[in-house]
Every structure is written in C-alpha cells, then in structure tokens.
Model the fold of this input.
Amino acid sequence: MTPNSTYRLQIQPDFPFPAAGEAVPYLASLGVSHLHLSPVLEAVPGSTHGYDVTDHSRVREELGGEEGLRALARTARAHGLGLVVDLVPNHMAAAPRHNRALWEVLREGPASPYARWFDIDWTAGGGKVLLPVLGGRIGDELARMRVEDGALHYGEQRFPLRPGTEGLALPELLDAQWYRLGWWRLARTELNYRRFFTISDLIGVRVEDPEVFAATHAKILELVRDGVVEGLRIDHPDGLADPEGYLRELAEATGGACWTVVEKILTGDERLPASWPVAGTTGYDALYRVDGLFVDPAGAAEMADLYRRYANPAGDRGGHWEPTARRAAYKVVTHALAAEVAFLTRTAGRICAADPALRDHAPWALRAAVRELLIRVPVYRPYGTGAEDVLSAEAAREARETFTVPEEADAVDVVRDLALGRLGDGPDHRAFRTRFAQTSSALRAKSVEDTAFYRYTPLVSANEVGGEPGRPAVGPDDFHAYCARLARDWPATGTVLSTHDTKRSADVRARIAVLSECPQRWAKLLDDVAGRTAVPAPDGQLAWVGWQTAFGLGPAGPERLGQALLKSVREAGLHTGWTEPDPAYEQAVADFTAAGPAGPPQYTVDLLARELDPCVRANVLGAALVHLTMPGVPDVYQGSEREYRALVDPDNRDPFREGPPDEKTALTRAALGLRRRLPEVFGAAGTYEPLVASGPAAGHCVAFCRSGRVVTAVTRLSLRLAEGGGWAGTTLRLPPGRWYDALDTSSGTGFGGAVELEELFAERPVALLTRDQQAEPGSAG
Done:
C-alpha cells in the first residue's frame, strides 16, 4: 500500500514501541496514513538512533522486542495506520561483543562462514583485521588488557580468542589472533575493512552476496509478509556494491508490494536512475526546491558579499562555494579517507602488475590519479549508466594537468578506465570499480555535507543535505518544472522538510531565509551586537555563524547553542577538529557563545526577529503547505506539525513529545485531512498544474492545482512584497468552479475566477482551496 503521508518517529530506549502505541490516536488525528519508524532491529545497547545494527534476525529488545513491534502494528492498524521502517543494509556495528557475525570472523579468520559478510582486505595488515579501538599505542595499553572467561578484555570491550591461544602470555596471545588491536588514530591510514563513511565503529556488510542478503533480511521480510511492515526506507544505498542489484533483489523478495524509498542524495539536476525498482527518494531533493522558493536570489548574493567582507574567509576557508568545496574534498580524500585510497591504490597496482600493457605505473602516480578523479566526481557516485558523463573526459584532463611529469599522468587514464570497467572483469577489476564508487559517495558526504557546509556560510539555511549553497534560491518556474517531473515520473516519491539528519529544522531554516530579503538589516545587527558583546569571537567566521544560528533558533542557553557551534567549528576543521581539538580555541568559542549569541545581546537579536515575525510566519506556513500538497508522499518529522526549532543531533533526535497545537498544526491537519479524504487527487493518478498570478506582485505568489480539485497558494518573499506595495492589483485565476479555503472553515466565503490576492491572503499568507462538488465546472467566474 502506498502511503498518502508518513510521520517519522525516533524509536529509542526512551521512546520504545509501547510509547509509540500511546501516541497513535493523536498521530491518526493528524491525518497521516503511516508511522515511519527509525531502525527497529537489534542495535548496540543504549543506541539512540539504531543505525548501529548488531543482529538482523531480531527486533530490538530495548524497544519492546518483536511482540512490541507487532502490538504497535495492531494498534496502528486499529486506527487506520500502517508502518514504514528504516532499513540499514549497508553496515553494522563494529563491536564484536554485540555483533555475533563479526565475533566469529575475528575468532576463526578468513575460514569463518561469516567472513563473506564483510569487505575485509586480508592481503593488507599481515592477514589480520585492524581494530582501531585502543586509546593509545598498544605498548601503553597492555596493562588495561586481560584474558577472562575465554575472551580478551579491554575496558568494557571484549574480543574473541583464536582457538588454542587461550593459555599464551599476553604479547604472544595478541600476535596469534586474526585481528590486531591498534591505536584509534591508525584507522585513518591502515584500516582494512570497509566502513560507513569515515566511521570505523560501523563495518560495511556485503549484501550483494545472496547468502548474506538472505541472512540479513529474513526477519524484515517476515514482517513484510505478515503485514506488520508496509514500507521501507533504505538507508544509504550509495554505500552498497550494486545499489540497483540490491533493490531488485529486495523488490523480488517483497513481491513488489512494499512501498520503498531510498536515501539517495541527488546533486543539482541529477536524476534518480529510472531503472531502480523504487517509489523514489526519501525527499532531500524536494527539501532543496521548497526551501529555495523562500530565498531571495538578489539578497542571497548580497549576503555572500557581506559574508566575504565580514568573515574574511581567506586561505583555506575561501569566499566562494566551488573553491571551498574543492579544497574540502582535497582535505578529506588525503586525510580522512586515506585508508580507502590506499585500498584502491593497492588494487590498481595488482591489476597493473598482472597486465604487461599496464606495468610500471608508480604507486604514487596511481594514488594521485585516484585522488584527483575522486574529487572531480560531481555527484555522490557514478553508476553504470551515465558513468562516463560523471567520470568525464574533461575531469580526466583536469586531473592529468595536476601532474608535473606528463608520462606519469597516464595513470589517470588507467584509473578512469578501471572505474568505468573498461580494462577487464576479474575479481580485482570488479573490486576496484565497486570500491571507487563507494568511496566517491563517502568523499562527497564528508567533504560537502560535513566540511564545506561548515566552511561556506553566507546563508546557513542553504547548507542542508541535498542543498546547493552556491545557488540557494529556486524560482517558481524551476519549482513547477520539478513538481511536474515528480508527478509524471515519481508520483509516490518521499518528500521531507525536517529529518533526523537535517542540520537545522525547517522552521529554523525558514527564519534564516528571511535574512536574504534584508541583508542590510542583518549587517546592522552584526554591528549592533558587536558593541554589546563583552567577549569577542575568535574569528569572523564563527561570529557570522553564531549570530545567524541564534537568529534562526531564537533565545537559547549557552549549552544548547554551544553544542551546535562546537560541532560547527570541529566539522569545518579550520581551527580545531574532532581528532585534533584545540582546547584554547574551543574555550574561546564557548566564552564568545556565552557572552554573545547565548548572552545578553540576545535581546538585540530578538528585536529584529520580532520585526520579521510576519515574514517568518509566511515562510513557515508556506513551506509546510507546499510540502504537504506537492507531488510525492510527505514525511512529517516528529513535532514538526507545530512550531519546531531544532539544530543538529542530538537536538533533532530527542524522543517524541506531544505538544500544544498552533497555527501550523491546524494547517497540517487540514492538508493531511484532504490527502486522506481525496487519495485520487494526490496519488499516482493525480495531476499537477501550475497556476500563475497576474499583476505587479505576481512573482510573490506560488500556486498550483492538484487534479482540478485542490489549489495551494502561498506567499513568497513577503518582506520584499511589503516593501513593493503589497498585493494591490495582483490576481490569481482559479480553475473553474467555486473554491473554499480549507484553512478558514468558519467564514464560508467562496472564490471563483480571478481572485484578488489581497483578498485571498487577507487572514493568512497561505490558502488551501477545495472546489465545491455541488457546483458545475465553469459556473463561477
């Protein structure tokens, strides 16, 4: 069954299945058709997110176990709701004491039947798996190790012992294992198993192996067959060896009857491969288009100029998006992903050594070619179809130009041909091609989302997953073209505004986006608060981000705001970092936060926020209504049916709490109620028709009609609208019929023909119109 809308719940020990069951009546009253649950399979004890799976065969006991999940499904079904769950096929927790499959591999080595589960390069590291778990060099940590109950203990961690080694002295015992315990810092360069991005605590799983797929999907498929689960959100498909092959196997296993969307991040105008047997993406591409409607392009450009002058992002920081992203990619590919590049270099070296036509390519040249081509992949990863466009000849030419010796630059052509599958199809060839694509997605995520987004910050609301900080504004024509394409090609795709991974919730982004309409007011604010802050910021970049975050979030204490700003500077990696923190700089960040954005100058920020409240209201309600009525299946993140201001995790992963309703709640109920009552209007057979206003303020209205039955109309760039004289003389011609605003059920006032927008938006900056079914088409106007 295809949902008409979903509601995302973060299931965790503090909000288990029984708690979700208690929330079902309220969630059903909102009008959603399905609950969307975070991962439900067994995970590391205490995990608040569940993406660190430890056992695919069991529903997580801390959440209530399988019976708890089935009971939740029964409760939901009694209220007309189904369940969609988050499925994590790419990785598991690399914690041997919790992960039985990994425990057996570490105990028995490559002969273990579980060895096929994981991408372990046994040729590296002397035939041992590097486990980067030690707090220091092994010589300094030996005293913390002991053998007890047939296992090796190190702090709270436990590791298996190779049979027959239990009685050895500790140094000999360590040398005799199939694994090597190492300092955590060695993961960067010496790790020899595939991981999730740069997180060594999450080990990649080879679901491309039929036996591994069967073992890791048996329980979830049982829940689908039993009707407990009706939909699946596939986490990080770009990490898989063959995303399309995996999705085809999954579709066959579910009988094609399970609504499935993929967390595929599309870049720019990139399209989801049409051959994938899914309903679409999880919706970050929609998030970018909806957000972009409420960004003023001219003001965003002015903000960027102000940013360059104020923050003075010199050197590595840069002042423009593309150079900043490129520099971030260089840093990540040479530092954080050094182990992945090393694997590709080793594999390419073996291929070249075995082929007389390819011999004598120096390892350093192959390594440089791998790096230079990876950073030039403009999307998350290349796929078979269209890969030559992604790994283009132009990219190869640019990569060759970085070599000082032209003859060595031939390595670029070798690496490109290997990545494109042109030089053979042996085991090493396939391994290189697959790992190049997997590493590409990791590089894009870490260099763009987790580095460049924190280095280039003119309008931080634009720095969201799937976003384009270099071009944050989306015009109505582009938005309509995108929606028309969704309605035609992916009518059941997911759409989102807030998720567990968004760096700022939709409402925070909506507030910040208003600044694009008043750059000079923002500049004046910065001048005003500078004179009222007792402790200056350690650099202009931090001040810019700190004050903009405070404006978007609203009044907040030093702890909450400080967490977000500390994460920001560590991710940027310019003055401090996660693995090499600078205590003095971080203390300066904390002192500035307490004295400035989280201190007395908050009053000055709040004054501007109050002045702009009507514009914020227009953005918040406009984005919500567009999201809930555009093509696709909207996902409402827990709590976001009302005002919801959240920053990055852990802020946005708090347990669900029902809160007091507000104007946004009423809008959400009205829109979701229409989706539930009129599935044919919003479903796969429904249509999407742009409606264009006429008059001097036409560009400030975005409107569309769904299947001739429902009209959405919202105000965009409302501050610019007010400065330009308002709606006077601007009209919107409605489709034939008499139309009534579902958000204003008390007045009974109907509209028809060319309606004055001044009248339509008299009470609120948005309108949700439905056609009177008793009226004949064409009877009004």
Notes: The first strand starts at residue 6 and ends at 9.
